[in-house]
Task: structure prediction
Amino acid sequence: MTSFVRYESEKYFLAENKKVAFPSIFDKATIDLSVIVPAYNEEKRLPKMLVESLEHLEAKQKQNPKYEYEIIIVDDGSSDKTTEVGLGFTEKYGPSKVRVLTLFKNRGKGGAVRLGMMSARGRKLLMVDGDGATRFSDLDKVEAKLDEITTLPKESAIAVGSRAHLEEEAIANRSVFRTFLMKGFHLLVWLLCVRTVRDTQCGFKLLTRSAAVPIFTNLHVERWAFDVEMLYIAENLHIPVVEVAVVWTEIEGSKIVPVLSWIQMGKDIFLIWLHYFLGLWSIKASPE
Result:
């Protein structure tokens, strides 16, 4: 298991003004779905995303009263009121459905997702961005594809939301230089790390619990390139992966600076490959 620090305050969520300990991903699943929402300074965009998500999940529960879910909002050391916004939804829907995990300090998106996953109760675990760029109702078709490829006896599988079908339209609206960088980034990912997925960076990924355990206990990268390492680990553990087209809309306020972020992620991808190639990092099929 990759070692990482979990500060004392990160072990608890608030329920009726009382601190309650988060469960562990190593515990047996007790609900159907956990939704992990990494959020850094998202007080403005988060409410709309949560309303859409909760409307969809409440409708599923109305159709099947036995269906249970939770949303874990992981505030990644925000300087705004992201935690307060999340707690407002906890008050409205109850702590069994909405929980807020406030990180002691900023870790990066990968670190936030990992800590949320390690605190989840679901048989299936969905990571989704807090900006609402992906249509949440696409969960149904992503889940259907996940069920198709889930294999026994371990029931390990990942369904990856994808924007690859939007690539031609995106290229038409980009400069030649930005298109070159994007193509170069994709080629680097394919050459060094991941070959089963065209769009590694879409923030809408659904995993079975038995897939999430080895992936997030092996994960090292805590910033933007964590998706690539996550899928690299999955490929090396022979976990089935399927890519599913989703509806995606660019939302104002993105934290990614296109050119600089792609260059930084390219560097991180090379370092991922180098660490595994030199044996500095290793992948264990089950946590020690």
Q: What stands out?
A: The chain has nine helices and nine strands. The mean pLDDT is 88. The CA atoms of residues 109 and 162 lie 18 Å apart.
